[in-house]
Structure to design on (362 residues):
């Protein structure tokens, strides 16, 4: 039986346990051990017209193409909170090297990985499993091992395997530049002054986090979940995976599978972008489901404003909309409180920030 959470104060989401790997690696295990038990209907629809943005048009010199791409980006962020980025220019060989290094990390002896066991929400390196609480106050463990690193403005990374540090550094630098271009484009679409944006979000000190999710094969994929429905904290999350499907996004009250072309990057709008744009961009609800056939690895980079930035709706948008729809909060605090907000179906952090009685004149 999954444990019942008696006093929430004593509940810790962090766990470091070999059970998941052992359970998953052993072919004799035919059912999900009870600590991972979470009933979920992972059925989802297929959509062959998910928004796709051509990055080369966004940064290229052709003003007509750029303006079309900026418009497409703004529409995708408003209507889906999600898009597939193609022609992004990130070398496939770098992504492959990153997957190789991350796989090596997860194959290290447990004793080696244990030194990175997460103990508190603010640890810059966290490794292990994660517990959440369901609606009947039962805690269960996610069917996923993870490694989460704070990489900017201060760079943190395990020393083993040797290749890891260099590839993480190179990849996250490139992604940071890419994310910044996306932010500039969305702000252009919303007619926000670029210097105002740079100053308010302080993007030079962008708080950037890379997380690798390792989802082993699961004997009963409807009885466990990789990551339950949630929204991401930052401005834009950029996600790549090992070619195994598993990401689902919510749109119009329905779940959709995300099937993406090889070498594309999946971009998820996060809470800070919804807040900053006063609700114009939608922080999309998404989840990761598991499967029986193949292990899945996703590498996710959360690109935020500076940790010091107090993010609320941009002043000109508040004026235009006739009121602020969200409270402001320091980003660093937002990130850390997300770790203590571990209830499935509970009120999300974003919902807690919403101002429901805002007098919005539209
Ligand atoms: C996440 C996430 C989805 C995936 O790490 O926040 O939503 O496909 N991951 O792994
Ligand atoms: Ni996510």
């Amino acid at each position: 039986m999954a444990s019942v959470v008696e006093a929430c104060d004593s509940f810790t989401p962090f766990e470091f346990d070999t059970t998941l790997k052992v359970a998953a690696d052993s072919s004799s295990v035919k059912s999900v051990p009870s600590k991972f038990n979470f009933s979920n209907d992972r059925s989802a629809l297929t959509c062959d017209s998910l928004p796709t943005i051509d990055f080369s048009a966004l940064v290229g010199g052709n003003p007509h193409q750029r303006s079309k791409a900026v418009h497409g980006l703004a529409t995708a962020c408003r209507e889906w909170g999600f898009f597939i980025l193609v022609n992004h220019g990130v070398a496939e060989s770098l992504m492959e090297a990153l997957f190789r290094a991350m796989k090596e990390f997860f194959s290290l002896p447990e004793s080696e990985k244990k030194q990175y066991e997460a103990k508190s929400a603010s640890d810059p390196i966290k490794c292990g499993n994660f517990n959440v609480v369901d609606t009947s106050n039962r805690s269960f463990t996610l069917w996923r091992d993870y490694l989460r690193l704070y990489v900017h403005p201060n760079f943190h990374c395990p020393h083993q395997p040797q290749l890891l540090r260099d590839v993480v550094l190179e990849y996250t630098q490139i992604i940071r530049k890419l994310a910044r271009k996306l932010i500039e484009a969305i702000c252009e679409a919303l007619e926000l002054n670029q210097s105002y944006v740079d100053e308010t979000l302080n993007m030079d000190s962008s708080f950037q986090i890379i997380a690798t999710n390792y989802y082993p094969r699961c004997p009963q994929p409807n009885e466990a979940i990789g990551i339950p429905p949630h929204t991401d904290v930052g401005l834009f999350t950029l996600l790549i995976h090992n070619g195994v499907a598993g990401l689902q996004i919510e749109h119009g009250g329905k779940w959709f599978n995300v099937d993406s072309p090889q070498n594309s990057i999946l971009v998820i709008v996060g809470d800070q972008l919804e807040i900053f744009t006063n609700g114009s961009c939608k922080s999309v609800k998404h989840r990761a489901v598991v499967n029986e056939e193949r292990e899945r690895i996703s590498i996710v980079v959360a690109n935020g404003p500076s940790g010091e930035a107090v993010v609320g709706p941009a002043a000109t948008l508040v004026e235009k909309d006739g009121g602020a729809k969200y409270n402001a909060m320091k980003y660093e605090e937002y990130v850390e409180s997300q770790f203590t907000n571990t209830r499935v179906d509970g009120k999300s952090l974003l919902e807690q920030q919403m101002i429901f009685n805002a007098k919005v004149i539209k």
